[in-house]
Design a protein that fits this description.
The protein is α/β, with parallel strands linked by helices. Helix content is 50%, strand content 8%. The chain has 3 domains: 80 residues, lambda repressor-like DNA-binding domains (434 Repressor (Amino-terminal Domain), Orthogonal Bundle); 50 residues, no CATH class; 224 residues, no CATH class. It has 17 helices and 7 strands.
Length: 377
Amino acid sequence: MTQDADLRTPGQLIEQLLEERGWTKRVLAIILGIGETNLSKLVAGKRPLDAQTALALGEVFEVSPDRFMDLQKRLDLAQARAVTRPDPTRSQRAQLFGGLPIAEMIKRGWIDADGVQDVSTVESELTRFFGAPSLSEIEFLPYAAKKTNVATEATPKELAWLYRAKQIASEMIVAPYSEFSAQRLLKQLKPLLSMPAEARKVPRLLAEAGIRFLIVESLTGAKIDGACFWIGESPVIAMTMRFDRVDNFWFVLRHEIEHVIQGHGQTAVMLDTDLSTADDSAPVLDEERIANMAAAEFCVPHEAMARFIARKDPFFAERDILGFSRTIGVHPGLVAGQLQHHTGKYNRFRQHLVPIREAVAPSAIVDGWGDITPVEE
């Protein structure tokens, strides 16, 4: 008996089963209650087999209806391949429309289109956004981003965010950067840690130090905290401030400044994701380990923090946190953030984690939360 793999159409299987039983097509047509002409077309492959007929054939021949339907599917695909030409733009659209947050990019003003359904305009805008001559030449994942714990390619959302940050940063004008200006910057920033309102000075101080600083709201679902990259000899620090907290702002900012000081991000973007939940025991890239240590030390000196924990652990009274914060000259939120990390209890000390974005944003370049930074075409 011929195997199904050797058959090309459900009609061939029907003919095989008729031969085994010694039936004619007229007999089968009578049994099925259909016209002999319709059955002949079905056997000849000129009429497609439907599910209802497959069920009836299964009953008559006492075989699985799936055998007939599988052959019909194979026949349909073979016929479609014969008349259909491959369209390489489909795979490109799958990458772009399936991976990039097109609707959100339109809403945020990054690309100008009436909606996702306006395919031709969206495709044209994407080539502009990514600086590509044509849709097929968009390097969908050109960034080997060095994340917190692994060197990897950027995801589509991360890539879109990085491109937006690069577009805006390219038009910023700041003083020349030098290692001396970076060290001076750290001394200027340290006194600002005690009062959230003082963070308003941060954008100006970074610009004077030769660092392009901007805030680009993260895309929905992305866990980007910040990034460091360079435009020529000019370093860029981009932050999302997705956590509007005093401790997170200063930790991420100092983390990115350390990347700048160490010269990280010149060959591959330093993309920092989920810094607030980083596991100390997890493997971390050397660049990220260095930046984490510098950030933690800047916010709360390690030795002072260790002595405080040794004296007070496991009971951290409110008066002790306030007193320790005054002693080291920082806002209590910075101490509270490190205590949360130390104890693993992120529901504690939250009253000190005050918002800070409203202090920073008015003096910074901001793209997001309803604001769209104009970019020259």
